[in-house]
Amino acid sequence: MNVRHKLITLALLAIAVSFGVQPAHATVATGTVAVSATVSASVSLTFVTDGSGILLGGTGTSAATISFGAVQAYGGVVPANVTKTLNGTTNWSLTTPFDVVVQVANQTSSNYTLTATLQSTDATNSWDIGATAITTTPATLTSVGTYGSTSYTFKLTIPFSAAASTISNTITFTATAN
Q1: pLDDT tens digits, 27-46
Q2: Over the stretch 30-86, which tens digit does the pLDDT of each residue have?
Q3: Residue 53 CB coordination number (10 Å)
Q4: Does residue 132 belong to any structural domain of this protein?
Q5: In a domain, 4, yes or no
């Protein structure tokens, strides 16, 4: 068979194959995803270093710390942005501002109530937030707080009669949307 016959045979074979093969059709599958979410109302409370206050450990979190370090009534070093006050011959105090940031989501609330509670009884020292004494009984700092950042002043008062020691306690803050 010559080359010309071979080419004609191949061309006819190609034409026959193209007519004999059905074009492929894509197969289709569909599916769905059902989405469900139950949104709950929430309140956020964090502590932030006030521009005029001592540097908070854990600033921007809900578990911050105020560390005055080693302090004394007479002499010594007062930490930056802390005020030491001698109150006659009775006691002395350390004060510093700090910020409380309360935010609300997914509820209609125009304000909040903020309370503070001392974790353990302290029969020696006085703990105050602003003009409010903080004890193991919840004390209301505000009943109509505005959402956002609010500055409060912490005050620790130590009697002159107290023995030198480490002072440590925790204040629990609770923000409740109104």
Answers
A1: 999 999 999 999 999 999 99
A2: 999 999 999 999 999 999 999 999 999 999 999 999 999 999 999 999 999 999 999
A3: 22
A4: yes
A5: no
- The count of other CB atoms within 10 Å of the CB of residue 101 is 16
- Residue 96 CA: distances (Å) to CA of 53, 54, 67, 84, 99: 5, 6, 11, 9, 10
- DSSP letter assigned to residue 158: E
Q: Please indicate, yes or no, if residue 9 is contained in any of the structural domains.
A: no
Does the pLDDT of residue 4 top 90, yes or no? Answer: no
72 lies in a domain?
A: yes
Question: What sign results for the dihedral spanned by CA atoms 133, 134, 137, 142?
Answer: positive
pTM: 0.81
Report the CATH number at residue 96: 2.60.40
Three-class secondary structure assignment of the chain: CCHHHHHHHHHHHHHHHHHHCCCCCCCCCCCCCCCCCCCCCEEEEEEECCCCCCCCECCCECCCECCCCCCCCCCCCCCCCCEEEEECCCEEEEEEEEEEEEEEECCCCCCEEEEEEECCCCCCCEEEECCEECCCCCEEEEEEECCEEEEEEEEEEEECCCCCCCCCCCEEEEEEEC
